Structure formats: C-alpha cells, structure tokens
Amino acid sequence: MNASPDVRDPRDEMPEHLPAMRAFALSLTRNSAAADDLVQDTIVKAWSNLDKFEAGSNLRAWLFTILRNTFYSDKRKTKREVSDSDGAHAATLFDKPAHDGKLAFNDFSVAFDKLSPEHREVLILVGASGFSYEEAAETMGVAVGTVKSRANRARLKLADLLGLKEGEDILAEADGATTAVMGRSGIQAA
Amino acid sequence: MRDDMADKQENSGLKKQIDENLRRVYQQALEEKVPDRFEKLLAQLREKEGGK
After folding, report:
1. What is the count of structural domains for chain B?
2. What ipTM was estimated for this complex?
3. N or C: which end of chain A has fewer CB within 10 A?
4. A14-79, which class in CATH?
5. Which residue from B2, B9, B21 is facing A103, i.e. has the nearest CB?
6. pLDDT tens per residue across span A21-40
7. Cα-Cα-Cα-Cα dihedral sign, residues A106, A111, A117, A123
C-alpha cells in the first residue's frame, strides 16, 4: 500500500473511532454487553477488509457501515428483537434531572428505547453524530431522500411516544387538530 | 412537498428539543469508558499482521 504521507494509515486512526463506534453500537443495541460484542466484531471485520477501504476517505463512516450491517445481519440470524435488559441501560446511565422544565431527559431515553433500531439509527446519525445526510445515506446504504423521510417519521414516532401532539401538526394529513392544542404549551418554550 | 415538511419540522421547537436530547444520549455514550479489550484486540491484530 503506497499511501501518500498526508493520508493516515487506517490502522493508526482506528483507535480514535472506538468511542464513536461504541456510542453508535449502544444506540442500536441499547445494551452495553451487546454493544461491546458488536464493536469487537466490527473491529475484526474491518481489519480483515482494510484492503477494501479507500485510503483518505471517511473511515468513521466506513466503520459505522460495517457495524450496522453486522448488527442487522446478527439480528436477522437470531431473530431476537430485544434483550431482557433492554432499557435497563438507559435507566441506570441516563437518570439525570430534567433541564429547564423542558422535555425530561429520562422520559426521552425511555421513549428512545422504544423506537425500532432503524429509527434510533437514523436519528443518532443525522441528529447527534454529526453525519451529513449524505454520509448517513452512505452508511445506511439508502438514498438521501430515504434518510430524510425516515428521520422525519422517527421524530414523529418519538413525539408520539412522548405524548407530544405537536408532532401531528407536522404531518399535513394529521387530523388531531383538537388534541394538538393540549400538548402545546409545554414544548414551545424555546 | 417533502422539503416543505422538512422545513416545517426544522423550525419547530419540538425538533430542536428532540435533537438536543439525541445529542445528549450520544454524548453520554461517547463519554463512557471504552473497554480495554478493544485496544488489546487492535494490538493483537497489528502483531499478527507484523508477523506475516
């Protein structure tokens, strides 16, 4: 491999991506032990496929792709939707007080746990990881438009799980006009 | 039409709050200590490769 001096060896760069890989794995699995196993498998797979990595391209997106593909293929194999300790992770780690009387973070975490992995994935990628829609699309192996619409649906689902009716206003076809008023006062503080 | 919908959601306080919380979920996961086994695994893989 003749990498030019300004292009780093992905082997040297990989350790820097471990926290992000684990955070992404946690958002898919919502379980520490499962997340660790997933990161472990991802490292091994990535290492044995390094010849397929295009030097100088986005290593994090490449690693995330392997990670989520591994997650979904394991899930298909085991057909085990959620583990027993699903949600326990959030309960122990994310039990912090609400800020400014806004959306309580613990409530949010509980609702987030109830989303499908596909919805958690898209929300974390575009809403939190700093990935662009294009990078998220590449990682998820879908079109940019699919990422956007899936992210919208995931936010609406989350709003629904949180009992926030404003979500319905966003959907043009929503006919919950009367109930929409009820949820409004608390969430328009910003 | 899709863009209208996205813009509307972009401007809503709800989206802002959801994204704030998402960042918090992700940030907390990022700040957790990464198990030593991953660094060890990388070192092992590297060693194996060097021995080729």
Report:
1. 1
2. 0.78
3. N
4. mainly alpha
5. B21
6. 999 999 999 999 999 999 99
7. negative
